[in-house]
Every structure is written in C-alpha cells, then in structure tokens.
Amino acid sequence: MSSDATTAIPTIPLPDAPAPLGQEPAAHGLGTSLPQAEARAKTEGTFPYASDLWAEGLLWAAILRSPHPHARIVSVDTSAATAMPGVRAVVTAADVPGAATYGRRVADRPVFASDLVRHHGEAIAAVAADHPDTARLAAAAITVEYEVLDPVTDPEKAFAADALHPDGNLIRHIPLRFGDPDATGEIVVEGLYRIGRQDPAPIGAEAGLAVPRPDGGVELYTASTDPHTDRDLAAACFGLPPEQVRLVVTGVPGATGDREDPGFQIPLGLLALRTGCPVKLTATREESFLGHAHRHPTLLRYRHHADAEGRLVKVEAQILLDAGAYADSSSESLAAAVAFACGPYVVPHAFVEGWAVRTNNPPSGHVRGEGAMQVCAAYEAQMDKLAAKLGVDPAELRMRNVMATGDILPTGQTVTCPAPVAELLAAVRDFPLPALPKDTPEDDWLLPGGPEGAGEPGAVRRGVGYALGMVHMLGAEGTDEVSTATVRVMDGVATVICSAVDTGSGFSTLARQIVQETLGIDEVHVAPVDTDQPPAGPAAHGRHTWVSGGAVERAAKMVRTQLLQPLAHKFGMSTELLQITDGKITSYDGVLSTTVTEAMDGKELWATAQCRPHPTEPLDDAGQGDAFVGLAFCAIRAVVDVDIELGAVRVVEMAVAQDVGRVLNPAQLAVRIEAGVTQGVGAALTENLRTARGIVRHPDFTGYALPTSLDAPDIRIVKLVEERDVVAPFGAKAASAVPVVTSPAAVASAVRAATGRPVNRLPIRPQAAVAVPNS
C-alpha cells in the first residue's frame, strides 16, 4: 500500500452557503431562516454520499448473515470462498485481533457470531473481492453448519427462558415508587397496549470505505452520527490504539436513530487491514433492515385512578421493552419510558415496573423519542378511557391534569424548565377544525384508501383526538454531556471546527448563524467532521443544538473579545460598550465606527471552548433521582377520517403546538416539526417490521410501508411557545423528537373517537378501526 493511497479518496469540500435559486441572500443571524449550506448540492444530486466514495485499488466487501434467529454454530468452512478467483480475504470471529464484542452502551454484541447466533441476520463472516458480485458469491459459498435452536421471541417468556447471553436475559429492571401505594380513586380504568417495531428506515443505504494507513492503522469513511465512540469501538476490535484509527464523517443523508451501526464499519476495517487495500461496502436494503437497531416493541399494562372530577390520583403501570438480541441503548430507553410513564400530568401517586429483556428478535436501540413514544400511546389511551367513563370532553379532562413549571415528576425531580402544557393544549383545542370533504366524485381521493378504493362516502366517520407528549433533552442519568468547538477567523472568513454531526438537525446552519450574529461576518464555513477533532458526542436528544451550539457560541464570544479589546483599549472604553452589526463595529456614543475587516487588519483570531450542562444522576432503586437536564413538551390534535366498514384511515390534519424555548431558524424548525409528525403518523398507521418466530418478514420498502407525500396530512403549526429555558444556550429546546412521540397517540385517539373502538395497538390494524355496531 503506497503512502499516498488516501489521496485517491474524494475530498469533502467546505460547504458554501448559496442563496435559494431566484432569491437574494437571506438575512443572517439567529432567528432568521438561513438556508442549509448543503441544500443545493442535495437537490441537484451533487452531494457526495458515503456510497459515492471511491479509491484507487478498491475492493468490495460482502457479509454473510445467519438465516436463523437462534442456532449453535457447529462449523464454518471458508475454503470454497477463499479459493474463488478475485477473492482477496475472508474474515470470521477467529480473525478479530482485538475485542470480540462491541456496543455503544454495553459491549455484548460480537463482531462475528462464533458459537451462537442470537438473531436473524447476525454477521458470521465478511469477504473482500475485486468485484461486488464476486464478493457476494464468495460470501454465499461459505459453508456454515448450524444446530438450529428454538428462538425466544416473546419477551414475557424471556424471564423464565434459558439464558440467551452470558449476561442473562434481563438487561434492566426499574421499580418506580412515588407516593402512597394504598391510594385509590373513585374512577378506575385499565388497559393493555402493544407498540410495534418501527425501523429508522434511512433512505440512504448504509455504506462505508476503509483505507489502511502506512502506520498500520486504518481510516474509516462513513456517515457516523457518533464518530468518536464508533472510532473507539472499532479500534478496540482491531486491537489498535485509538490514535491509529481515524473516522471521517461523510455524506450523512439524515438520521432518526443511530445512523451507522458499527457492525458495518468494523468488518470493513478488518478487511482493509488484512488486504492492505481500500475496501468498500454498500449495504443492500435487506442488510440494512437486518443489521441496524429498531424501536423497541413494547408491552404496556396500565391502571389509572381518578376522582369524580377526573383528576388523577394514582397511576400503576408495567412496561416491558423487547431489546432483541443485545442490550444497545435499552437501559436508557427504559429509563425514559418509566420516568415519563404518567405523561405531562400531575400524578400524586405513581407505581411503575419497567423491564428490558433480551430475546431472539431483531436488535432494538436508539430511535427518535425512544421509550417516551411507547408510553405516550398508552397513557393517552388511558386518558381517553377516563374521559369516556366520566362523560367529560377529552381535551377538558386533560386540561384538569396538566403539568406546569414547579410540579414534580414521578421520579421526584422538580420541573424547573418552562412547562407551558396548558397553553399548548388550549392552542390546539381552540384552533378551527378543517372543513368536511365534499361528497362528490372529484374528491374521492380524499376518502380513506384514496382513488379507486372500495370505500363508500357514507361509511366514512370523522374523529378528533388529542395527545400531550414530553421528552428529555441531552443524555440522562449521569451522562457527561460535553462538546468542544473552535472558531477561527482570517481574511474576513470564519471557520467552525466541531465534531458535531449534522444529521438533519440543522447544526451546521445553526453554527453559521451563531458566528454571523456574534462576529458580524457573512462568510462562515463549518469544517468536515473527523476524529482528529475533539469529541462532541452523539447526535441525539437535541444535544448538538444545546451542547455543541453552546460551545460554538462561547468560542465565538472569545474571538469577539479578542477582536474588540484592542479597539476598546485604544478609545478608553470597555468591550461591552461596543457592538457588531452588519459587519460594522460601533461604539455606544458613535465615536468609533469601523468594519470588522478593518479591525482584523490581516490578523488570524481563534478560540476553543467547551460547553457542559449541569450534571444529572442515575435513578435509584425506587426510580427516584434528578435524571434529566431539561424537558420539552408538545400538544397535538389529530383529525382523521375512517371508513368504518373497511378500517381504512386517512389523517386529515394534525394541529401542533410546541414548547420550543426560542426559535433559532423558523423555516428549519417548521421542517423538523413536520418531519417528526409524519414519522409519528407512520408509526401510528403503517410502519411495523414484522417477524415470524424471529425471522424478519419482507425486509424491504415493499413490505415495510413508509408514509409517502400522499399519506402525509396537513400539518398546522398553530403555536410555538417561546419561553426560554434559562439553563440552555440561546434558551432553545429540542424540536424533532417530541412531535414523533406525540403524534401516534393523537392519531390513535382520533380513531377511537371515530369508531368507538379501544385501539390498543400501534400501528393501527384495519380490523381495529372497524366501528362497533351502532357506534
């Protein structure tokens, strides 16, 4: 391998910031709708995704995966694959030089299965060849003798089943105890709820390129969302120190979960190290479905107690998360589910049991709103049951119980952040309802099922439902949240260096806005991300808006001080008396007026800063503790039309009111909310990765139905409450997770209103939406 091998990889250019076609450049700074720097490249098809990467002497990789969800591996014979012309390397568990297992939270997942297969699609071996077809044929030529075992696919049976893993089947148990266990209410309602397996379904296939380095290390080019963690996991498996492994983030098309499973990256690096050549892997859609983590399927049992006025007295719940074969983020997901099991309501007494268990089902992990989405669907169904039993309007019942700042969560933590839940609910409740569709042939596309459907207008019923949701921001339970950023200014151009990955959250745009507002510089670039930069942590829970944005702001303010101090000293005033506006520096009295460029005078200024929020603590043995840095809230009113004979559902409108803290980029915020609502509609109606005894059925976009533009409802953002969170930089809150959490519950509530059916399962099956007689 020549020392200049890495130069054959396409460079990742610093993005420019062009104005939208046909428009003048937009105003800059916080609060403006600055367009994304990558928008034009993505719309014109010139954006370099990871699957577009190329290197001289490239080899292609393929992975052999298990066809069984549970089996003992008797033998693996790679001789036929190794003998095939064009095959350069075959690696199995025996060829992993370092740690045999990995995991972002718990290192329990093998790079390659060696003794046991624990889920359908688990990696057994990987092949590198000079052509992708050769690699796939060689992988298929590997002979594996299995002793097929009975899979454990029912999470309720996992407690008594034989251990599927050396760590056992129980990953975590949280017993939350809050208040008086003997408290009771005059009105009691119960329910059993099931939430399906939602896939993050990244439209861009997982892909990556590994290139060996002259020093014996390797460089990985992938669309990672947590590059430093992925680098460290890979280095441990390679048996290399972290400084010999460099991960370059390239071509991130967007993510609603962990964008790149290390299970794709580690085999790539092993093959590159073995062959001494660059190796590329682009996963098929089937491999993508089988390999990465999904939302936890969840079983929930609830009992709500209320007084005669409908005010909550006690909530009892049991929550069981199916983690699949490995732990991944199940412990964190369970903590969110248990902590938010009662929702954004005042509950004097709460007793919740939560478990996360291993099964032989596909692995579960981080997907936007994990834990919180599942319990929201259940507690809001319970609120609908209470309203029906009391004969109270569902919105009014919720209004009698909503949480506010100063109330206490069932974990014992006081809600110190803004919690305008009543204001959000009132906004969606009072928003005008959409008009009823006309009963005319030209409008039949508005019927559930669309044009050419079998439905009849006379069978269509309209339903209106409500839901209130909440999520936590940043990590929880003692996670050390920290990010580092550098701002450098030279020749009138500012560059932001921060390893925060923009997965569609808009961080790169926000970073530009922060520097523009702080320093008055129009041209701001955000450098490409790699692990040579200080860590910024994962792209989850809105943390880059808060932590990484806070680091950029602090660094920019330090550069601002460096810029203004000489001027302030010269004129005998403090820097606080100087302001920067539209590229000009002026003093309060007008004596000083100059441009930023003139003040720079050819100098290079730079500063590095960190942002670390206040610490949190783990939940104790009773589920108590200050586990969360901050909370965000949302209210949604769903309007649906249901064909009560066929069970077809059309979501007509979603009215959204959200607690956002501060609007930093209006257009970007609206898009984030709309995308979150649409993802939630998918979870409510269509998205369910089905399995049969652990075997994934139809791992493709034919069998797994994502909502299309025709399925997306009218989304009305009726109110954004800008009550700033004083502990957050800029006062802003996470934007995209809470509508994902809230919208499935709102859709289910509306279907209940239209049909009179309980609707206790997501996604909603047609038979569950067929109305009861005389409803």
Strand content: 25-35%
Number of helices: 15
Percentage of helical residues? 10-25%
Quaternary structure: single chain
Radius of gyration: 27 Å
Q: Strands of the largest sheet, in order across it?
A: 3-7-1-14-11-12-13
Distance between the termini: 73 Å
List how many beta strands DSSP finds. 31
Keywords for this entry:
15 helices; disordered N terminus; seven-stranded mixed β-sheet; alpha+beta; Ald_Oxase/Xan_DH_a/b_sf; AldOxase/xan_DH_MoCoBD2; six-stranded mixed β-sheet; 775 residues
Protein described:
By secondary structure, the protein is an alpha+beta fold. 24% of the residues lie in helices and 26% in strands. The protein is built from 15 helices and 31 strands. Helix 7 packs parallel to helix 8 and helix 8 runs parallel beside helix 15. The longest helix is centred in the last third of the chain and has 29 residues.
